[in-house]
């Protein structure tokens, strides 16, 4: 069953990233909404991924058929548009244009294609894909040894903390890699996995399920470096701060478990729309903002124009490429799964 309010949360995550990059590029409001605060939107994306994979798959039986279906479904969701953007960026860069992203040579292209490295906003896709692989281990433990999932998460979290999130990056024969991005992202995937494990079983008393908990989303701008009342370095360390992890986990918990599913602010057609185009919006908004910023316009007009054009590009990408290809891959996986089941029943 679809958890509709998560569509809006996904759209909010994309808009956080959009607004942050717009603020950084144009210095809108003196950059108060920038300063790397787009990280909070990416954190929401990662928690959503961990939650949905845990919620959708861990209760299913793990076998060759289910793994194949899982892999094809995940690939269909993320990889096609990413590869199209990467390859187009590479060809444009070779022609002397950085209209999309800067991928200057075959080594950089290989780093992107192998999900080892990402330029600009593309950095978040390798951690996503690598976590898809790690999730199979969780799935393996889920049937009879579910408790080991918690133990594994605790061990990894402690190891990351005591090793200060090791900076593992560089290049191998010219091919760039950045595992630091993966390591710093893991806690957010883990939070999503734990919440997903308990979504169906955790009983929340009716007196706690209130629409007012949607206000927890207001905690996110309170962590923006230029807006935060926090005086520690947590607001600047962001990914490396367990305090930030606590706040973002609180926001996610409130939205998923405490806000009623029929909340009008989170369950509506606008939220559904932005949720559907969120991935395309995330990948395509930066080039649009950079191009619009070249115009001699008031910053408010740049904001409106950037948002409209980004949404249009994202919608066209979703309708013409992302959705059809994802459906084709998913339907193929489903057909193969059904055919295999039919053979096994004979």
From TrEMBL:
Family matches, as Pfam families: Acyl_transf_3
Domain Acyltransferase stretches: 5-316
Keywords, comma-separated and alphabetical: Acyltransferase, Membrane, Transferase, Transmembrane, Transmembrane helix
GO CC terms, sorted: membrane
Superkingdom of the source species: Bacteria
GO molecular function term, any single one: acyltransferase activity, transferring groups other than amino-acyl groups
GO biological process annotation, one example: lipopolysaccharide biosynthetic process
Transmembrane portions of the chain: 12-29, 35-58, 79-101, 121-141, 148-169, 181-199, 211-227, 239-258, 265-283, 303-321
Name listed for the protein in its UniProt record: Acyltransferase
Organism whose genome encodes this protein: Pseudoalteromonas rubra
Source organism phylogeny: Bacteria, Pseudomonadati, Pseudomonadota, Gammaproteobacteria, Alteromonadales
């Amino acid at each position: 069953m679809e958890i509709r309010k998560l569509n809006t949360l996904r759209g909010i995550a994309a808009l956080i990233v959009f607004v942050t990059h717009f603020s950084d590029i144009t210095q809108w409001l003196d950059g108060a909404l920038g300063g790397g605060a787009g990280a909070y939107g990416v954190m929401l994306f990662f928690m959503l991924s961990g939650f949905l994979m845990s919620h959708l798959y861990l209760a299913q039986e793990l076998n060759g058929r289910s793994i194949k279906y899982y892999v094809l479904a995940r690939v269909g969701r993320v990889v096609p548009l990413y590869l199209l953007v990467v390859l187009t960026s590479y060809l444009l860069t070779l022609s002397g244009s950085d209209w999309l992203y800067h991928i200057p040579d075959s080594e950089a292209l290989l780093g992107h294609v192998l999900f080892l490295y990402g330029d600009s906003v593309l950095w978040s896709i390798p951690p996503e894909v690598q976590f898809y692989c790690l999730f199979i281990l969780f799935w393996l433990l889920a049937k009879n040894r579910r408790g080991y999932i918690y133990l594994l998460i605790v061990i990894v979290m402690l190891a990351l903390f005591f090793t200060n999130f090791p900076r593992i990056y560089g290049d191998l024969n010219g091919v760039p890699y950045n595992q630091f991005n993966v390591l710093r992202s893991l806690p957010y995937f883990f939070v999503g996995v734990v919440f997903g494990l308990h979504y169906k079983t955790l009983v929340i008393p009716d007196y706690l399920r209130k629409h007012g908990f949607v206000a927890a989303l207001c905690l996110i701008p309170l962590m923006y470096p230029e807006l935060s009342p926090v005086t520690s370095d947590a607001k600047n360390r962001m990914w490396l701060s367990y305090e930030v992890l606590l706040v973002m986990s609180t926001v996610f918990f409130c939205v998923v478990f405490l806000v009623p599913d029929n909340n009008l602010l989170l369950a509506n057609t606008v939220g559904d729309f932005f949720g559907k185009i969120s991935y395309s919006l995330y990948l395509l908004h930066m080039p649009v903002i950079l191009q619009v910023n070249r115009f001699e316009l008031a910053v408010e007009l740049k904001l409106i124009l950037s948002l409209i054009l980004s949404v249009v590009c994202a919608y066209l990408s979703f309708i013409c490429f992302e959705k059809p290809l994802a459906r084709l891959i998913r339907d193929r996986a489903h057909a193969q799964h059904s055919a295999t089941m039919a053979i096994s029943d004979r």
